[in-house]
Amino acid sequence: MTAPDLGLWSHPELLSALVTEDWGAVLRTYRKLSGLSQTKVGELVGLVQPDVSDIERGRRRVTSREVRERIVGGLGAPSHVAGPERPPVAGLVLPGPGPDDDLLARVTGAADATHKVDAPTLDWLDRLLAEHRSAEDLIGSRPLVGLMRQQLRLVVDLFTGARGPLAGRVIRLASEHAQFLAWMAQDQGQAAAALTWYDRSHDWALEAGDADMAATTLSMKAHLAWSGGQGGRAVRLAEAARWSAPDASPGVRGMAAQMAARGHSLNGAGGEAHRLIDEAQALIDRASGRPEDEPAWMYFYGDTWFTLQRGMIAVHLRDWSGAVGHLRTGLAGLADSYRRDRTWYGCCLAHAYAGAGEAAEALAVSLPLVPDAATIGRPHSWNELHATAAALIRAGAKEGRLLVEALRQYD
Predict the structure, then answer these.
(1) Is 2.60.120.810 the CATH number for 6-81?
(2) What count of Cα atoms within 13 Å lies in the side-chain half-sphere of residue 234?
(3) pTM of the entire predicted model
(4) What are the structural domain ranges in the chain?
(5) Mind giving me the DSSP string for 123-141?
């Protein structure tokens, strides 16, 4: 039997399945990427073909540690990220977030209350959160949720050992973690959980006197309303973010203005949408002159991002040619490290092509996105591809049926 291809484990879909211990997805994804049959995969892991099929289809759960170890070893999964002792984020190599011996002693001492929390400990946690935000852009939210819940518990536990200004820093850090957890819940279509976390983050931000995060949580609740098709609520929440935090940074105020623009576009108010997106971009241009004054979570805002937002507004206004132009330009400038966003905006581009009556282009854009839409892009990108297929079918284009067939492979 040919030795397993270790290079396959760089694929985020396979890595995500391993992280979440979804053994059916591990076997199914490995088989698709390797081109091997169920029988051949079974030979690698010491299972007969019917057992492989049952695990892939969810008819049999993998509860035995021996079977898990056979799957991991047989498929050549990275041993340092598999099994009960693996770190929470498999295969994620963070560039330098690990503490040195001295800092490790500070962190563990603060965590078990043997020492008071200090600035170096909080600085390290700030950097670690930033690395996890970047990781989520690449591998999606699912592999990170458990880890971030644990990390938030650690931050909250640090409060008892914090004194003076450090206590405020701990509360602010807890607010940032709660906001990140809210975003990840929203990314997975869990609206109620997202609202709960945004409320918790907002309360902590007010307690810490952090106007930037207080405004951001309202803007992100506006985003949640927009995702649910509630244009009016999106506008109201975005405007609340603007008037309630006039001291927020230009970038944060720009975020609120663009969310109001998206809400107006959802309601078909093109004039207001374009006025506000212009205002938002002017604020972001101001922010780019003093990036050191912007909070860490604003790292992705810039010209490329605004081009993509203009494309989204055009989609809502059914300006299909404008949407295609903006989305194509924005995607060309979006780095590969934003894999989740590239999937989402690519699916929106496919929808725009379908709306414009360019069925061949819609299919050509859609098909390469199906695997990532089915994994790191569920439910939003996945739903967008289904909307694209529906638009093509309504138009009588054969490409609609071809896209449906591709989507069925991952249902």
Answers:
(1) no
(2) 23
(3) 0.75
(4) 6-81, 107-207, 210-301, 314-411
(5) HHHHHHHHHHHHHHHHH-S
